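Can't attach files on this board, so I'm pasting raw text. These are the components:
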Amino acid sequence: MKIKKLVSGMALAMGASMVSYGALAADTIKVGVLHSLSGTMAISETTLKDTVLMMVEEQNKKGGLLGKQLEAVVVDPASNWPLFAEKARELLTKDKVDVIFGGWTSVSRKSVLPVIEELNGLMFYPVQYEGEESSKNVFYTGAAPNQQAIPAVDYLMNELGVERWVLAGTDYVYPRTTNKILEAYLKAKGVADSDIMINYTPFGHSDWQSIVSDVKKFGSKGKKTAVVSTINGDANVPFYKELGNQGISSEDIPVVAFSVGEEELSGIDTKPLVGHLAAWNYFQSVDSEANEAFITNWKAFIGNPKRVTNDPMEATYIGFNMWTQAVKKAGTTDVDAVEQAMIGQKSPNLTGGVAVMNKNHHLSKPVLIGEIQDDGQFEVVWETEGVVAGDAWSDFLPGSKDLISDWTSPIKCGNYNTVTRTCSGQNF
Amino acid sequence: MSQSLSSIARFSASDLFKGKGQPGGRVAPFVAILLAVTVLASAANLLLPESSPFYVSTYTITLLGKYLSYAMLALAVDVIWGYCGILSLGHGAFFALGGYAMGMYLMRQIGDRGVYGHPELPDFMVFLDWSELPWYWLGMDQFWFAMLMVLAVPGLLAYIFGWLAFRSRVTGVYLSIMTQALTYALLLAFFRNEMGFGGNNGLTDFKDILGFDLQSDTTRVALFAITALMLALTFITSHWIMQSRLGKVVVAIRDGEARARFLGYRTDNFKVWLFVYSAMIAAIAGALYVPQVGIINPGEFSPINSIEIVIWVAVGGRGTLIGAIVGALLVNYAKTRFTAIMPDGWLFALGALFVLVTLFLPKGLVGVYDQLKAHFAQPQSKSDESSTPHQESAKEASV
Amino acid sequence: MKRYLALCCCLLSLWLNPALNSVYAETDTGKTSTGETTTASSPHIQQLLTELTQKSLNKAVPVLEKLEQSGGEAMLPLFRTMLDGNLYFIKANRQVISVTKAESGKAFANVFTGEPLPEFTKKQIKKIRVNNRLRGYLRDAIARIQLSSSDPAAREKAVRNLLSDLDPSTIEAIQSARVNESNTAVQEMMDLALAMHKLTNAALAVDQLEAIEALSGSLESEVRNLLARVSESENYEPAVNKAAASALVKIQDKVEFYAFIDQLFFGLSLGSVLLLAAIGLAITFGVMGVINMAHGEMIMLGAYTTYVVQLMLPNHIEYSLWLAIPLAFIVSGLMGVLIERGVIRFLHGRPLETLLATFGISLILQQLVRTIFSPLNRQVASPEWMSGSIEINPVLSLTLNRLYILAFALLVFFLLQLILKKTSLGLNVRAVSQNRNMARAMGVRSDWVDAMTFGLGSGIAGIAGVALSQLTNVGPNLGQAYIIDSFMVVVFGGVGNLLGTLVAAFSLGIANKFLEPVTGAVLASILVLVFIILFIQKRPKGLFPQKGRAAE
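---
Top answer:
Structure tokens for the assembled complex are below.
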């Protein structure tokens, strides 16, 4: 066993085949679920755990996979980031799962990453994130910044004629990176420095008086102003309330948010939010047969006719479907085989059209912009023509504009520098 | 893993507390058991094949290493709370600072193997457009310097805080709340990305330590063994301090600070240095924790974490050193098990544990054990403790 | 302390002064006029309406423009219905109708006459979608039409809405409306618009200077923007540039003064939130010496009580808070008594252990709420009367919910003072807190007093929860967010001193809000924390230490 770790490259493949051998010998295919069921993130992640369970149940009704039943192994990393790494190791070494669906926050993914690369596991990450990453062992089914932030800004600029921009976010890596990308993008479009205001607030910020008043002042300079909000979770309600109370309506200064979806709205008095925008790849309100069936199944599965669906759920749905297809194609659950089989997989979106898994482990998906309605749903006001390919490395950041990710031969690298033609930062 | 841990627990119930009412009597047996378990577990991991029934998985080794660093942290809190009556609700801060110093060293070790391939800057600095390394990151690529910082930064913070607080005789509740404010302020500060510590994501994706691959089994076992050794070492040192004249003064300060002061002792000096000592133990624990769990982030500063440490000590029995260690091991083991079995019920159980321990077990498990032993040694002398929590606690010096 | 009160009074009087012509910044709810059906039913309009149902979002504006031109005032109800998102059309005949929510399902009506229509199924009708651009257009159109509204406030608002977009046709409309205008405020606003037009379009420097004269002193942002442009533009003579610049400086001074007041209000408002959150703790901690880590959860219980009240009475949101306040007091108060009787009384004289035990209780209560109400945030609606703001002038407006909460916090504070100073319970509480044994010797039932004090402190935390439910999320973590701040306030103010708590809350609130623009929100709270830590080292007993024998 010691030798295995010493000659890592070869040995990992060996280890992987051992793991998959164990799985083949077993009666079931194990699906690990790594979502927080307690702690601060439980609010969002419990839903995704249930989504995976629903998908597993449906797949089993269809006769399972490769002639075997699927078995979900659920663990609780309790919104504790070191615990994510520990539980991932537990899933891979103790339970010997074949695939993991999990993670929400960036830090949880970053925490799991070394473990999953060391043990050659396979993970599906279903949440919109800041990009700047592409691991051999992870498939990113949520939106990259160019699938959410940039189309939203395009919409505001071209359709609403916005000239002044407030980039407001919670102080963590997703807003920081997204705002960096947007800032570079806006400047490339000729927006002056003085027309961009950037503001960061701590998690759960509840006193928005000064900031909203600053936004109001910033917006009173005679040019159309919009707020691009990467404000996280709990801080949103007091933010929108303060906007409403200070008399800023969505016509004066629209706010487009990337972290406010149906689930978040279900805990909010939506009156002050009506007309504000959100950019996602999925809205529950989209009228399609697949979506209607999904919503019906979900409500039945969860036993609550009032439960809503949201974008990360669709990302989980697409990821799960693609994984089952890839396993069928590869004829095994072996990670390396499935990884290669995943690339090029197609799966219908719930909103129509077909999502494609690209060489960089990111999806091509449509981007929708919706306006918040008073019933907590979104009214789609704009959508991209066709799909947008997820970009692992942003073209607008100096550090990453030369990087690409391509997991097919001959490059086979997540961080390939097209200028120096080198591959850096791989853990295997 | 359940095997090795339950073995600790079983031993602790029967052999570990062979003291004569004095906590000191338990040092030798405890250290012996700790080291024996370490050697056995390490050997079982490295030498046995995976198929052997006695094989200890790397997962278990890492878990044990984590528990032992927590035990060390609990020891640090017991030194000041149990012996000197200073209830720190901010010891997580020193733990985290030590962890960050170690994390910075590990980040620098990545070198140009980061995702952007930058020769010097960590990834999070590259994508946030930092042009050069901030001054406080300089020198952290040297192991000796980083280790010095592990001790120096928390030590200095503890010294300044202690010096200010103890000299102006901030005591009791006020002090506890101030330590809580301290860790809360640090939590907010480390969340800021401008600080240059990676913000909410913290430091992660470590590759190697002193040239050894962090993902290899040998390195993991070595780290686990070092943690066990450091725990034994700090345990012995702390025990020695508490048995010495210095320790007697410290206890005297706990039981009657004014009196100790009138006897001519500069009580504030004693408290400051004990506080610094305790902070340094916490920092070492943090430094050992980080390479084993693979990430350090501001969450470690959260005030709730610090309160939890106090609970470990209370459960085990404060003012006994051994109690702190046992408490940390037991509560964390229970946490690992229960969060897996019933995530929803876990917080109920933890909450109830807090209430019941403070109400019925003011001396913790060690106290119960001592009492049971005394009870069986002289069956008619004393009644069961739990029936009279009131009197017991009244007898105890109020803290 | 007196300064703060004076300020509050000042702010309140500003609000109450009718001379300031305060306007509620909400959209006024106009009545549907019924006499215009003839215009609305003309074939041309009907055709346009049908067109409206067919156009995509981006192409709807030209249709609306035509409707406005040919329909005029008759289109007001249509535009309003559309603005509110209530405009639908019947799929069969493309007739537009208004669909509004009613107590039982939906109400269907003719858009123009308001006559009720028979029910339609969901499949039979389709919504005419609106986006922000359409809303913007509709609002301007309504403003233009409303220049002849009968309500002066609506007229003033209409003119103000037009300031940003003064084209010759609107100027013409304003000019003709100005002749018949009788209300001075509206007249002034119209003159402002005309002066702005004059400044941009007059050829002679004399006229331009005259316009600047008329504009100086106005706080409207459009005026400021125009003056800024004029002061830098080369199309104007240097004298005009200079005059514009100096007018701008004068305005800027005024703006800064109001910005200062604004910031002060923000500080006071944050202070009032801190006061509400901390005042219950000041009683349990300050008077009884119990560190109640479950205090935050008492606040949370109060907020959830509000939620439950609204759940029970979905049709009486406007009054729900009045019912929630006493209920929250009772719920949290009872829980407090329960905790005191069940746990805390066994831990007398061991404050640090009450801390641990109550922390355990706080975990249990949080998890309890998660189990009962789900971990998701719950929706608590704000009543109409707490939404919006009072606009004192274009640069200073005070949000109503904050204003009410400020007043409410002060009210609670004075009531509490009254209870402690004037009632026999208060006397007993003070006696026990000063010397427990002596009080008992005098026949005070210290057990009973303890339970009541703890209940009182917890009950007030519950009331704070009702107020906080109007500002922030109602979820299991609500209490956690306020517990550390509350402790800081109490310790900073001096334990056992309610007045200290008041002063501490407001000074920390104001300090925070004045630091925030300079340092950012995060650094501001860090600096305040560090300041408190250092302050306590200097004065371990806080701002107002207890004096005399009671203070140990």
